[in-house]
Amino acid sequence: MTELSKTGAAVGEPTGTSPAPTAFLEVRDLKVHFPTDDGLVKSVDGLSFQLEKGKTLGIVGESGSGKSVTSLGIMGLHTAGQYGRRKAQISGEIWLDGTELLSADPDQVRRLRGREMAMIFQDPLSALHPYFTIGHQIVEAYRVHHNVDKKVAKRRAVEMLDRVGIPQPDKRVDSYPHEFSGGMRQRAMIAMALVNNPELLIADEPTTALDVTVQAQILDLIRDLQKEFGSAVIIITHDLGVVAELSDDILVMYGGRCVERGPAEKVFYEPRHPYTWGLLGSMPRLDREQQERLIPVKGSPPSLINIPSGCAFNPRCPYADIPKDDLTRTVRPELAEVGSQHWAACHMTTEQRERIWTEEIAPKL
Amino acid sequence: MTTKRTPGRRKRAFAAVAAVAALLTTAACGGGGDDDNEGSKTGAAGYDAANNKVAQASLAKKGGTLKFGGAQDADSWDTTRGYYGFMWNFARYYSRQLVTGKTEPGKAGAELTPDLATGLAQVSDDGKTYTYTLRDGITWEDGQPITSKDVKYGIERVWAQDVLSGGPVYLKDVLDPEGEYPGPYKDTSKDKLGLKAIETPNDKTIVFKLPKANSDFEEMLALVSASPVRQDKDTKSKYGLKPFSSGPYKFESYSPGKDLTLVRNTEWKQDSDPIRKAYPDKITVQFFSDANQLDQRLISGDLDLDINQTGMSPQGRTTALKEHRANLDNPVSGYIRYAAFPQSVKPFDNEHCRKAVIYGANHVSLQTARGGPVAGGDIGTNMLPPSVPGSEGQKYDPYGLAGANKDGNAEKAKEELRACGQPDGFDTTIAVRNNKPVEVATAQSLQASLKKIGINAEIDQYDGSQTSGIIGSPANVEKKGYGIIIMGWGPDFPTVQGYGMPLWDSNYILESGNNNFALIDDPTIDGLFDDYVNELDDTRKTEIATEINHKVMEGGYYLPFVYEKFINWRSDRLANVYTTDGYSGMYDFVNLGLKSTTT
Amino acid sequence: MLAYLIRRLFAAAVMLVVIIMVVFGIFFLVPRWAGVDIATSFVGKQADPAAVEAVRQKLGLSDPIYAQVWEFFKGIFVGRTYAAGGDVTNCAAPCFGYSFRSEQAIWPVLTDRFPVTLGLALGAAVLWLIFGVAAGVLSALKRGSIWDRGAMLVALAGVSLPIYFTGLLSLAIFAFGLNWIDASYVPLEDSFSGWLGGMILPWITLAFLYAAMYARITRATMMEILGEDYIRTARAKGLKEQTVIGKHAMRSTMTPILTMLGMDLGALIGGAILTETTFNLPGLGQAVLQAIRNQDLPVILGVTLITSLAVLFANLVVDILYAVIDPRVRLA
To answer: B593 — phi, psi (to 5°)?
Structure first.
């Protein structure tokens, strides 16, 4: 449940009893619900994870699985600029460097946004204001957190554009977004996100709108920059291939919840959830023939208003009948450790899953 | 272009305005009626106190600013070109004539009195020579004396119709019926005074030599188109923007359609002018495009009177009658509102069919459509306005329009239809101007009562601004099948000639700009007009006028609706106010005064 | 940008020529087709054939249409001379025709009345922009609230109530009832306070109508813009909400408002007839109304052309402003 603060924004339940975490970023039981005419949309429904500085977390899932909502939740963008009567209902805890964001003063969160935590969006064309120059938008991002004059800020913008690999940055700084190519726009977007040296960088589908060749460049850039700045990075994508290259940890989301979480190589090479298998199956791989390569997950993502009972994945899961007593359809599986730092939420026994993976799935990939 | 308007939008507009009008009644006046006849607390003279009598003459003081308002500017302020009645009235401020109407109320105002001349004309026995001597001390606004040559030149300008169109051309028709003189601008003589019919033996004497006698000639000389104009000040077509004054006031500024300001002509001498009192120091006219605005300003006291003198608009009238009766007069305008039956359109070539319409119409409902007895006028029973000598008013009522048949006589109408050979009635068209709501209402009333006797009349609302092009063309009237034309007419000067000749004399049937809508071609009537213009005896003239009226009525060419009356506003500040038959029931502008000279 | 400007100017020039042709066609051909002799409406009750012929000659009614158009065009640049019956009338360049009703050249009439209409339109525009846009933005930010509903209800009333109603009502209350102001027009050069006093009611009346429309469009646009990705980006940068709304969202919201403003101002300059009539302002609208009443063709023609020019000019300004606001347009 939520209560309305004086500012009208919905904030989380009082979390006084929880001890402050030691991790740089810790999300505890995050719930983000949206009231609509059709019912309550439970976009994120109890999500927890941790992330340390210098590490990269990949959040993977289909569209509608709640991954973008999670990132916006961390940034506090569900409550900022909420106009009208229907406000997002958010509960849980988000600790960033010792500060709990959901119960913090909105203006304090605003001051953290863009400086402590920054975000790169999926479609840089629509995410950049069409009427302002690239330089202006970067300068603005810098000056809101740094009390410097425009000249200094502009030098900083040029420097950042140069750093993200935009040629002739001193000229391009005065260009408008529509005068940039897609890749250049995303580089500019990254420059804008990093202009304040944020400790946490969230990249929401940073390459989806781009050409395949440009995708790789952008991912390389993010990796290089992370090394250079030592930030914590969350990469949100529906493409396991993207996170496999970049991430230390991977979190797979389905229906607003985490279904599998663990170190990247574990999730990638020893996945223990049928949904993860499906994602791996639908992952494009350059060393395979076209027709073999894609094995899409059958069916469509679940309704977030009426999430299927039991395991949310059960209507699409080919192994739903393996656990006894119709357990899959009646009881929601909790995350259980399946290996070192590796969790998955599935009613099948670990052995059953190991067997299916090694015998049925892995050979086809 | 004949257009019919959809009434929806208008109706909404009227509804909204009516709602506002209700508010205005209270907002603008603060309530409280004034006494009826004894003058009021506010100083207004009382209801009808200035109608045919002088109100508060003794209260007029010298000085102050007299403020006119108007919904319509003059057609032209050029004395040669103006034809609107109010322009003639107002022109006496800045122009003088040899003779003019007396500055007295009612009928006396229509009688002539010398102005520039020392006396009325010395007329020769054959009625063809008129001689005048000019007064001493008469001057232009630059101090130079007004000479007989200036008078001649001013009259000659009437001949220059190609440049100075718009005004009455009686003088031209009477003095030069063959059209021999080309007008002063094409005059080859050195002094541009080539018109043979006028002689100026010296600066003080002017002699008019008529080719053919016209007993109303002196009336024509009283028109403002007979005003003197000085040749070196004649700006031709632009003269109306700043006429050179011979009267007590001169133009200070004029912006057409916006405003006009007159100030004292300091060269004018009171002792040279027997009729003009020249009370105010300054006269202003402000024009409004919305009649309601004008009425509001009158009621609120911002303005003194309406220069157009056509009566208040329906809303203003309602408010004023309720709250400010003491500021109102209800004069007869001199206009007759009527329907004419063009004989070129069948079956109106048959007098019985014409009479069927006259009998079939409900005259009370026509009167109501015109605005009722107060704002509309008394039921018209014949075609000669009460202000014209020879008129018998409602006493002459050959069809019983205000009597037995006032609600329509279907039986008599059917009888006439049978005599006409149309026992079951017929179809016809009523032509009415689309810009006069009252006329449209009248047409609808007529349509309704004709239906009862089997005459199906369709109403055609034509573009009112194109009146002379549409109904002034007999060919067009015949083509369109306009069997009934709704119109109105007022006298140019108060005689049967000044009123009826263009309407009834066959010589005035014109291809365009025709006003003899009924196409009356009756040798008897033509003969009576000939007798009239040759008759110098006033009593006999009056008799002939009566006779002409009878002949017109007997022919059944016209269905008169009302002898028009209107509600006229005068402010609390006005003094020496009276209506005059010389200007069709308007207030006589030239001698209006103010009670207080502070504004 | 320059190429864009040249293209727009060229298009405007072409449009102007087309407008002049069409207007001419309407004014001189239509009565001819309808079989009405315009000339007779110019002479008095006693139509003298010489007078009718002179009017035809002066107005050039018997010339072929192309000759009339040519004479008119020429007049604009080199002036014109009308001669008939020994009277010569000069109409100095720019000659937009000559009224033989009021014996005035049209151009001075237009230049005399244009400032009145312009003052009315601009003053009202300032008011309606301030109040309309502010109300619209507030409504969008507080959507669904009492404020929002109230504001939109008032806006609905503003859109539905005709000028002559609100105008007469305001006159009745403030000018004639409470006597707060003297609601008669005073030229600006005579007295600033007098001018202000005469203009304030027309401004408010006109602004009420337009503010209502602008509030509605602002609200709708603002709500749409607030859903844009770049607004989210602006917030993600940590910008204050007032910067997000006032700078990022407003900049985009202004685009449709500017379009409307251009059209409305253009239309008002020719079409403030109701307001000018209600308040007796000596502007173009009143001039054209009088001209229609008097069948003063040259004035109607002149005002129509000036109005078209105003609309055209307003459109041009909007196009240019567009390019200033939205850099993408410059490419188009």
So the answer is: -130, 170
